[in-house]
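To close the section, here is one more complete example, presented without commentary so you can practise reading it yourself. The ligand is zinc ion.
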Amino acid sequence: MDFSHFRRLPIIDSHVHFVHPERMDQLLALLDEVPCTRANLVCIPNPDATTHNPAALFFKRHHPQRVYLSGALDYAPVLADWDAAPRLLAGQAAALKAQGFDGLKMIEGKPQARKLLPLPLDGEAYAGLWAALEAAQFPVVLHVADPDEFWDAQRCPDWARQSGWDYSDGSYPSKEALYAEVEHVLARHPTLKLTLAHFAFLSGDLPRAAGFLDAHPTVCFDLAPHLDMYHDFSRAPAAARDFFLRYQDRLLYGTDLDTRPLARNPDGYAFLRAIPWLIRSFLETDGEFNLPGQPALRGLGLPQAVLEKIYAGNFERVYFGR
Ligand SMILES: [Zn+2]
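Output:
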C-alpha cells in the first residue's frame, strides 16, 4: 500500500486510540509511515472504570510534538457516589485541562456505553459538564449513535455482534433518541465546540447531515470510517463532493487508528495502514480507486486549499483558535 503519491501536507489525525503504552513505538512507526504529523489521542473509559488517560499522558511525555490529547471522563468516583455525579463530572473539564489535555472525548453516546452507564446525555448528570465545556471553549469529541444495521438483527454483521453491538433486543436507546439528546444539549449550549465522530453516522443521508451542521455552527464531523461510510459517499459522488466543498470548514480528518488490533492480531498493522490510505484516496483521488477486495470507490479530488483545512487547519482552529 503506497502512500508516496498523496499530497505532502501537515496532517493531524483527530481520532486515534492509544491503549497500550508498550506499543508506543509501533504506533509512532505507523504515524511516520502514513504519514501523520500529529495524532489526537482520544481516550475512553474502560468497562472496569479505569480510563485510557494514563496511556495518553505517557505518550505525550515521551513525544510531546506528536500528539494532542482528548481525555476520558473518570467514572470511578461517580460509581461510588451517584448522587454527586453532576458535581463530579462538571469538575473534570478543568481538571483534564490542568493535566495537559487539549479536549475531552466521550464515547457515552454509543448505545453499548449508554446502556452500561445509564446517564442520558441531556440529563442532570452532565448538565454542569456541558456548561463548563462551553464556558471554557474546551473541545469535545462525541461518539453518538452507530450504523443503522446494529439495531437490526438481520443486518447486524457478525463482527459487530461479537463486539456487543447488536442493539436489536430493545434494551438499547434508539438512534433517534440519542440524536435527540444531542439536540437538547446543543439547544442549551449553542457555542459548544463539539465534534461528532464518524460523520455522526449520517453518511447515508447528506441532506440531514447538512441540516444538522447548518443548525449548529460550532459543530464539526470527523471522518473516521464506520461500516459503509465511504461506500455511502461513493454511491453519490457529486453530492458528496458538493457536501465536502460546502462544509470544508467543518470536517476533521480522523482514522480511528487504534493499538488494540495490534495487540489482538498479528495482521493488525496491515489492517490499520489501509484506513488512512482509504480516507486519503477518497479525499485526493479524482475518480475511481480500489481498496483490495472491496467494491470500487470514487474519490473527490478535492483542491489543495480544502485538503489543508480538513487535514489540519480545521483541527487547529477548533482546538487552538488559530
Ligand atoms: Zn474511535
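Once you have examined the C-alpha cells, check your reading against these statements. The chain has 15 helices and eleven strands. The chain has a mean pLDDT of 95.
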